[in-house]
Amino acid sequence: DAGVIQSPRHEVTEMGQEVTLRCKPISGHDYLFWYRQTMMRGLELLIYFNNNVPIDDSGMPEDRFSAKMPNASFSTLKIQPSEPRDSAVYFCASSAYRGKVNQPQHFGDGTRLSIL
Amino acid sequence: ILNVEQSPQSLHVQEGDSTNFTCSFPSSNFYALHWYRWETAKSPEALFVMTLNGDEKKKGRISATLNTKEGYSYLYIKGSQPEDSATYLCAFNNAGNMLTFGGGTRLMVKP
User: Fold this and answer.
1) Backbone angles phi, psi at B82, to 5 degrees
2) Which among B85, B41, B92, B1 has a CA at the least distance from the CA of A89?
3) List of chain B residues whose C-beta atoms are within 8 Å of the C-beta of residue A43
4) CA angle centred on B72, ends A32 and B74, rounded to 5°
5) What is the C-alpha separation between B54 and A31, in angstroms, rounded?
6) Rounded CA gap, B69 and A47, in Å?
7) Chain A residue with minimum CA distance to B90
8) Alpha carbon distance A50, B97 (integer Å)
9) What is the tens place of the pLDDT at every residue in B64-111?
10) Beta bridge partners of A44
11) Dihedrals phi, psi of B42, to nearest 5 degrees
């Protein structure tokens, strides 16, 4: 079975450019999560969706960050304009929650983002 | 902000040694406690999801226990092997499906 698929794997871009990260969750999963991993703060939740609806975006650092989930099989995380402090590894994860708290989250391989 | 602490931050052991590390979390509003294994340059992989006080779970040489009343979980590795080298993350679920991750314990097993 295909796991969570993220693209691109690596992105290097200049400060001020728009960056779009993409995620395809596991088919049938009803929750999708975006995380950011940095040395300073570890793995932190940015936003999550349930059945394509954003539920909690309190982890999104500022208005430069936005996320969408137009359908059950695709989500994007956009940074506009990007800044060097946005450099991190961004992970997408999905889970088949359906009210059962014992469901694990399945992570993609991450996008390593470097803003110069 | 939820406080999920893991100790130690890093650990070096010899092949064949058994080891354990700790995850502490708030003892209120408990839904579940997750353990993940995260190898360098890969993505975190779920080991266990524990929901009941007193739960014990086992997968091969790795096992975990849970105490929700006092807010801690232990992860044990019996007879460590070099391929066990990874960062082990715990994550606390206190509402719905949101996880708060600890900082991880980085385990290095020397052959």
Assistant:
1) -55, -35
2) B41
3) 44, 89, 101
4) 90
5) 28
6) 29
7) A43
8) 9
9) 999 999 999 999 999 999 999 999 999 999 876 789 999 999 999 999
10) A36
11) -125, -175
pLDDT digits (tens, 9 = 90+) for B14-34: 999 999 999 999 988 898 999
DSSP character at residue B43: -
Which of A44, A104, A110 is nearest residue B49 as measured by Cβ atoms? A104
Place of tokens 């539920």: A55
Supply B22's token pair: 């700790």
Residue A54: cis peptide before it, omega within 30 degrees of 0: no
Cβ neighbours, 10 Å, residue B38: 18
Q: Residue A73: which residues within 8 A CB-CB, separation 6 or more?
A: A24, A25, A27
- The closest of B11, B6, B13 to B35, measured between CA atoms, is B6
Q: What is the dihedral of CA B42, B44, B48, B49, to 10 degrees?
A: -160
Shortest Cα–Cα distance, B33 to chain A (Å): 9
Name the residue facing A43 among B45, B89, B93 (closest C-beta): B89
pLDDT tens digits along A56-114: 999 998 899 999 999 999 999 999 999 999 999 999 999 997 767 678 999 999 999 99
Instruction: Specify whether the CB–CB gap between B71 and B94 falls below 8 A.
Output: no
Q: How many CB atoms lie within 10 A of CB B80?
A: 22
